[in-house]
Structure formats: C-alpha cells, structure tokens
C-alpha cells in the first residue's frame, strides 16, 4: 500500500492487486455510498457487510466488481471515529492517510486503485475534484443540469443497478462522462456513439483544465 498526493489535498492510495484494494477499502466506501440504508452512514460489522452483499445462493461478487474507490475526508474521519473493529488492513490505511502532509485549511479526499491503473485513477480524481475544487464542482453541476433526459435516464438507471446510491448520481455522472472512452461507455452502459460524441466533450474539457 502506497500513498501520494495527486491533486491538492487529494490522496491516492495504490495497491498491488484488487484483493488488497477491495479488502482494505470496502467498508469505508460502503459507509460513504452504499445503496442500502442499512449500511450507508451506519456502523456495521464485517459479518453484516458480508450478509448485505451476498445473494441467496451464497454468491458475493463485491471483491472483484470494483476497481476504484473514493471517500471524502469528512466521511473518512467519521468512519475512523465510529468503527472500533478495524482489520489490520484498515488500520494500516488509517495510519497512512493520517501521516500524509495535508493543508489543514482545505478539505481532503481519499481515492484508491490498483497501482498504475491510470484510467481508474482519472475517474477517482474526478470524484475528488468534485468535492475539493469549488470551481470544478460548479462547472460540472452546470453541465449536469443541461444533460439531456435520455442520457440522464440511461446512466442513472444503470447506476442504480450497479449499486450506486442516488445520493452520488450527480457525482458519478460527471466522473464517468469526463474520463471514460466510448468503448467503455458502450460496454458498461450501452451508450450510443452519437450520444457519447454529443455530450462528453464539454465534460472532458472541464476535467482537463
């Protein structure tokens, strides 16, 4: 597990493989944005986490389904305060984040990915900027407000199926539309090429600037 600042007060934690990534980040991430109100914002044990994400046939896809994670600093702080049964991986994460030099006058953000996975890193950086950068946030909110209804319905319905809470849909819109290739959006969301070419350039321009 390694950490570096990739944007002012944005900490990227990188992991050698997806197992280490997901086992370390799963509970703080679901505390932040789980679709289930039994989990989101609540204190829950590992047993409760496993129960929530396992289907009636005993299948649990969580640990190979997710490639990146993002958590606002205030949520991270709250998680640390509330959870008293942390695993060794989680404790190591807390030590690493709190040892990082940060500007205490600014909000901070924690993102995580497998090391050298640049496309995932960009997506998570977009989430972080939406939180810490007021100018970026305002620009993306404006673009979201102008997003045509067909694209919004297509994406938000898929977000719900994938397990994203409605509380983060606006953030997910800007992150996917600003950092994803057409090939990815076609495969993940079945987005028509005409729609992709029409709506993504404005998002990409804000992200790159």
- Helix/sheet category: alpha+beta
Helix content: 55-70%
Number of strands: 4
Low-confidence stretches: none
| DSSP summary: helix tally | 11
Q: How would you sum up the major sheet? A: 4 strands, mixed
Query: What gap, in angstroms, lies between the N and C termini?
Result: 29 Å
Rg over C-alpha atoms, rounded to the nearest angstrom: 17 Å
N-to-C SSE string, H for helix and E for strand: EEHHHEHHEHHHHHH
- Mean pLDDT across all amino acids: 94
Number of domains: 2
Strands in their spatial order, largest beta sheet? 1-2-4-3
Question: What proportion of the residues form beta strands (DSSP E)?
Answer: 5-15%
Question: How would you explain this protein's 3D organization?
Answer:
The chain has helices at residues 18-33, 46-52, 62-65, 73-82, 88-99, 118-132, 134-146, 149-162, 169-179, 182-189, 193-208, and strands spanning 2-7, 10-15, 68-72, 109-114. By secondary structure, it is an alpha+beta fold. The protein is globular, with a radius of gyration of 17 Å. Helix 7 packs antiparallel against helix 11 and helix 9 packs across helix 11. 60% of the residues lie in helices and 11% in strands. It has 11 helices and 4 strands. It has 2 domains: 1-132, no CATH class; 134-209, no CATH class. Strands 1-2-4-3 form a 4-stranded mixed sheet, with helices on both faces. The longest helix is centred in the N-terminal third of the chain and has 16 residues, at 18-33.
